[in-house]
Design a protein that fits this description.
elongated; Beta-Lactamase; five-stranded antiparallel beta sheet; alpha+beta; Enolase-like, domain 1; Arc Repressor Mutant, subunit A
């Protein structure tokens, strides 16, 4: 059975196409370092006055870097340009591009590579982002559709691993812990006016909350409240259970007496308050980053990136910055503190629940020569597909 109906598929595709029209703005960053880079791009008159020849040469240098990771020289560039140009003329243009900080020579007499400022200029001004490839769209839908029956956390795990495999980067996602699936609830009286509420999740984790209860609440009410919730929670998230009980308030009041209904509400509210701010980070496919290494400095860069990924709080903080706005966000190298040493990039997009609240961020981390034109629509489409299956918060 297909994951999406034809109508839903067309709606999602239309939403994806509309979002790409806004991507030129949503790719802009907001940190002090990133803002400084944009100020340079806006204020440098040399950038504003680049002619078409300079733009063509610069674009070919970046595209060659993204494809091979290697410097490109004037002789090879002369073969890539749409109009004939001598190597000497190309070298003159390359020198001008180097003078304004868009490219650099890693070694004497070597070709040129884009700087991080050059990559930012390319992403903001020259990157052409098309629609996601048909075969990649089908692969994403098939993978997420196969995960849907195993719960939302399984969807996130499989989507992260899938993106890692498709992009040869590390797939990452951060989401709220209360998306975890529940298994059992129990209420135990501690004192005449206090009870312990015990919440067990399917992954074996246990959360305890002490709740105030009326002195006159009978012991049978604790059992009745537990039975009522246990009949509704297994395999579901706390957010889903709270939403359903709110929607069927009248039925709950008819089934439970007033004191027991208040206990059910207090238990759910207590757990939500404790779990709400907590986030979990999923990282898949770090080993992919070890492929296609061409030099010892590449190996050192990946070692530093692994160290970055171990710093979970910094990764979650960076992903959280992708929540501010619609569409895909691109973070490049030392524009952000997390990747200042490893020189890595991240492409990330938020996903929302049925109430349009952001419940997580999905992304891909890799070297700065990620295939941005291919990965941006891939991350964008995956995040929108996940949003259709996200529980209402």
């Amino acid at each position: 059975m297909p994951l999406l109906s034809q109508a839903a598929h067309e709606t999602l595709a239309a939403s994806h196409l509309a979002s790409r029209r806004l991507e030129r703005h949503s790719l802009l960053m907001t940190s002090p370092l990133e803002q400084a880079a944009h100020d340079v791009l806006r204020d440098t008159s040399a950038l504003k006055n680049l002619n078409q020849r300079s733009l063509d040469i610069f674009k070919r240098i970046v595209e060659s870097y993204l494809a091979t990771g290697e410097p490109v020289g004037s002789r090879n560039l002369s073969l890539l340009l749409p109009t004939p140009l001598s190597p000497a003329s190309i070298r003159n243009v390359m020198q001008s591009l180097e003078d304004i900080g868009l490219i650099f020579a890693p070694h004497t007499s070597a070709g040129r590579l884009p700087t991080e400022l050059g990559l930012r200029f390319f992403v903001d001004a020259l990157l052409e982002i098309g629609d996601i490839a048909t075969e990649e769209r089908a692969q994403i839908e098939k993978q997420i559709g196969a995960s849907a029956d195993r719960g939302f956390e399984a969807i996130l795990n499989d989507a992260t691993a899938m993106l890692s495999g498709m992009t040869s980067g590390a797939g990452v996602v951060v989401t709220h812990k209360d998306n975890g699936r529940l298994k059992q609830i129990e209420f135990v009286r501690l004192e005449p006016e206090r009870a312990l509420a015990i919440l067990v999740a399917e992954d074996g984790s246990v959360e305890n909350r002490v709740l105030p209860i009326p002195r006159e609440l009978p012991a049978s009410a604790l059992i009745e409240a537990g039975n009522y919730l246990n009949a509704r929670i297994r395999g579901r998230t706390l957010a889903e259970v709270r939403f359903d009980i709110e929607q069927s308030r009248a039925a709950a009041e008819a089934e439970l007496d007033e004191l027991t209904a208040r206990l059910v509400d207090a238990g759910l509210a207590g757990w939500a308050e404790g779990l709400g701010p907590t986030q979990q980070l999923i990282v898949r496919g770090q080993a992919n980053l070890l492929s296609n290494l061409t030099a010892l400095d590449d190996l050192e860069r990946i070692r530093l990136l692994f160290a970055d990924l171990e710093t979970k709080k910094d990764v979650m903080d960076l992903l959280a910055r992708a929540e501010s706005g619609e569409g895909v966000r691109i973070f490049i190298g030392s524009e952000n503190k997390l990747f200042s040493l490893s020189g890595s990039s991240m492409i990330a997009a938020p996903f929302r629940d049925g109430s349009r609240r952001i419940v997580g961020v999905l992304g891909v981390i890799g070297p700065t020569r990620l295939n941005y034109a291919r990965i941006v629509p891939m991350v964008d489409y995956t995040s929108k597909l996940i949003a259709r299956l996200a529980p209402r918060m």
